[in-house]
Design brief:
This protein is of the alpha/beta class. It has 26 helices and eleven strands. The strands form two sheets. It has an eight-stranded mixed beta barrel with strand order 3-4-6-7-8-9-10-11, surrounded by five helices.
């Protein structure tokens, strides 16, 4: 992926995150609309809510939405442009309010220009603000003394950008006005049916970029859809009843397609949440929640479904099969009910259900494809190819991107960046020696992941957390195990009998196929697999697989004991030979309470028959204290850091190795 393509992708994700954050606003406005408008469907005529009240209630979301969208867009795009988020939001809101004062001269103009202000000006202003801030910071680094100049590098660009924004508002407004007048002129010259079809398609495209396409198109063209398509049915009602089933994009079909075909939990949760509103033709929950906005996969069905429905419905109605009595039916009337109220025919209900089934069928393959992309299969395959694992990692290892959709989008971007880093650079294994206290020799080494950059430098595994959250742990663990097997062969050739330790993620122990691989490759070898304590309570699958490993004679060790959640009672039942005390406990031994705790935990583990390893020993005082506690082995930078295999083997062969000078551990 080129730098430009990556930036475009990151920008798109930022915009999607901004609209996704507006889901509560969309949900609130949808509830208001359903409660106010929906009641009129079922209330007797004498109790109907007046139209004036409906209009006023409808203004509530319109007042909230532009400001909320301005704040959301500026917040996420501030991160994209690498500027202070608070300053970015302040800048965008200031620009928006200025635009409202300068060009908001009427209800329609205000609403339309608010939309344009929200989308265009914050992006322009943030880009200008970012450029000016970087320029001024560069000047400050060259000429400023100390930190005195830092406030200026924020205030000056912010002030200048606001002034530039004020100067751009009128030119932007007139440019947009000229464009919309041109669009209106072209649309008004196109004959009725084709003109309405184009009108509807453009409205959907505007929805796709995040604005209320129906309102925008109505303001551009004057909104005259009151002429009859056939006697008793206006174009506006035609679009509401046959094209907007579930709202814009016929998204009721989208919700059904998700529930029928998608496996992604988040998509299904949004479909369940949005379905009740889609029944009342309110689409915002689905549009913001999936999201459809700037969603390249769902763009085609989002446009195609309304076009297909338009074509079928127009053809059938022109045959004169149904008669319309001109009844007044609210736009929130559910699919089927609105058709029945307009015609009094149950066949109309069947016809609408046919259109709904057609829409669902159109969405279904695209939903399946999008659901797969949300599981990051593409990135999983790229990582597998980079690590040369072939088909050893099967489809059962698909990534589990569950949780909030904003996390999905953000994590997908972070994961893609990490995979790109791994593609350009190389994963390597280093080994950290463990010192046997009694024999004063190195008896085992632990495999630790590192990344070797193109310039030859070696960095710690900053990528682990991202790839683990993305569900790629098994792929990484398989690569580590393959490399350790190769290194064990090299060590055997040199006559070494070192024990190799491999730290595996609990997800790997949960995978039966991976556990079978471990048994096949490591049975009878001098190896111990480390697993954190929560791995032993990960469910029946992990428990079953751990028993299989133990039955094969493979040794296990508890890693990071004492970090986070630890259950002392479980020490009596853990099926392991070794317990590694987390360095967080050792870091507290400078207090009397901390020393007592460490002594008690190590003594308890010894009394229960476990080998005890002190992790994270970085100073001589920690080394001496751990010795007095009777630990079996000591591991940490005071003994040795993580070393390439050849250096680790040389360290182990050296007689009575001396501890390294105290250093600060920089790689984990």
């Amino acid at each position: 992926m080129t730098l430009f393509a990556r930036r475009v992708s990151e920008f798109r994700i930022c915009v999607q995150e901004a609209f996704l954050s507006l889901l509560p606003v969309a949900l609130l406005s949808s509830i208001i609309i359903v409660l106010i408008n929906g009641l009129n469907i079922f209330l007797p005529n004498q109790y109907l809510i007046p139209d004036t009240l409906l209009v006023e209630a409808g203004k509530i979301p319109a007042l909230i939405y532009p400001l909320a969208l301005t704040a959301a867009l500026s917040y996420y795009l501030s991160g994209f442009f690498e500027v202070d988020r608070v300053s970015g939001v302040l800048l965008a809101l200031t620009t928006y309010l200025m635009a409202q004062q300068l060009v908001g001269n009427g209800a329609q103009e205000t609403s339309f220009n608010a939309s344009l202000t929200v989308m265009i000006l914050p992006i322009l202003m943030l880009r200008i603000f970012a450029t000016m801030s970087r320029l001024l910071r560069s000047i400050a680094r060259q000429h400023a003394q100390g930190a005195v100049f830092q406030p200026v590098t924020l205030i000056v660009p912010l002030t200048l950008t606001i002034l530039i924004g004020a100067a751009l508002i009128y030119p932007l407004y007139h440019l947009v006005e000229a464009l919309t007048q041109g669009i209106a002129y072209v649309l008004n010259t196109i004959p009725g049916t084709l003109g309405v079809a184009i009108w509807s398609t453009l409205a959907h495209l505007i929805w796709f970029v995040g604005f209320h396409g129906t309102n925008v198109m109505s303001m551009i063209t004057g909104g005259d859809l009151q002429s009859d398509i056939i006697p008793g049915l206006t174009w506006q009602k035609f679009l509401e009843v046959f094209i907007g089933m579930g709202g814009v994009g016929s998204v009721l079909g989208l919700a059904l397609a998700i529930l029928l075909t998608a496996k992604d939990r988040y998509m299904r949760a949004v479909a369940y949440l949005g379905l009740p509103f889609a029944l009342f033709n309110i689409s915002e929950v689905l549009i913001f929640g999936i999201p459809i906005i700037l969603n390249r996969v769902l763009l085609i069905p989002f446009l195609l479904a309304p076009i297909v429905n338009f074509t079928i419905a127009y053809g059938v109605l022109k045959l004169g099969i149904f008669e319309f009595g001109g009844a007044s039916v609210p736009w929130v009337a559910p699919v089927g009910l609105n058709g029945y109220l307009l015609t009094g025919s149950s066949y109309m209900v069947l016809f609408q259900l046919f259109l709904l089934a057609t829409t669902t069928a159109i969405y279904a393959p695209f939903v399946c494809r999008y659901s797969r992309t949300q599981s990051s299969t593409e990135l999983r395959e790229a990582l597998r190819a980079k690590l040369h694992l072939g088909d050893a990692i099967g489809s059962d290892y698909s990534q589990k991107f569950y949780g909030a959709q904003s996390f999905i989008l953000r994590s997908h971007r972070e994961t893609r960046q990490v995979v790109e880093d791994l593609r350009r650079n190389d994963l390597v294994l280093h080994y950290q020696p463990k010192l046997d206290i009694r024999a004063n020799i190195c008896t085992s080494i632990e495999a630790l992941l590192r990344i070797q950059m193109q310039d030859g430098t070696v960095e710690g595994p900053y990528f682990l957390d991202t790839l683990e959250k993305a569900g790629f742990s098994v792929i990484l663990d398989r690569w580590v195990c393959d490399r350790v097997l190769e290194d064990m062969s090299r060590a055997d050739t040199l006559g070494s009998d070192l024990m190799f330790s491999i730290n595996l993620n609990p997800e790997s122990f949960a995978d039966g196929e991976f556990v079978d691989y471990l048994i096949q490759q490591f049975t009878g070898k001098n190896v111990v697999f480390e697993i954190i304590e929560r791995g032993f309570i990960g469910g029946s699958g992990i428990t079953k697989n751990i028993k299989k490993l133990l039955a094969a004679g493979i040794r296990l060790s508890v890693d990071d004991f004492g970090a986070g959640y630890s259950n002392l009672g479980r020490l009596t039942t853990l099926p392991v030979d070794e317990i590694k005390i987390d360095k967080s406990l050792l870091a507290k031994v400078d207090t009397q309470t901390g020393r007592k705790l460490y002594e008690t935990v190590t003594r308890l583990c010894r009394d229960l028959g476990y080998r005890v390893v002190a992790e994270g020993v970085e100073t001589r005082s920690e080394f001496e204290f751990a010795k007095t506690c009777g630990v079996t082995e000591i591991q940490g930078w005071y003994i040795a850091g993580a070393l390439p295999l050849s250096e680790a083997l040389a360290f182990a062969r050296a007689p009575a190795p001396s501890p390294a000078p105290a250093e600060t551990a920089q790689l984990v």
